[in-house]
Design a protein that fits this description.
There is one protein chain. The radius of gyration is 36 Å and the shape is rod-shaped. The protein contains 1 helix and no strands. The protein has a domain of 40 residues. It is mostly helical.
């Protein structure tokens, strides 16, 4: 009978220690979550710009131009004063 009582006491002690360890880990996780919630929100992602690998065709039929019409390279400058 003494052996059984001792065994129950040891198991209860181990269960308490395990519960204390679990509670400490839970408290640590709670602190971490609260710290994340206090952080300022991340800025919204920047909109994607044009793909630099894409070649765009720009209609130049009625546009003002200088230089030879059959040039190999055409520089297009545009601006918006809105």
């Amino acid at each position: 009978m003494k052996l059984l009582a001792t065994l129950v006491a040891v198991v209860a002690s181990l269960a308490c220690q395990k519960q204390d360890e679990t509670q400490k880990r839970l408290d640590d996780l709670t602190r971490r979550i609260e710290a994340l919630e206090r952080r300022p929100a991340a800025p919204p992602p920047r909109p994607a710009g044009p793909d630099p690998a894409t070649v765009y065709s720009v209609p130049l039929a009625d546009a003002f131009a200088r230089g030879d019409k059959p040039a190999k390279v055409t520089l297009v400058e545009c601006s918006d004063y809105a």
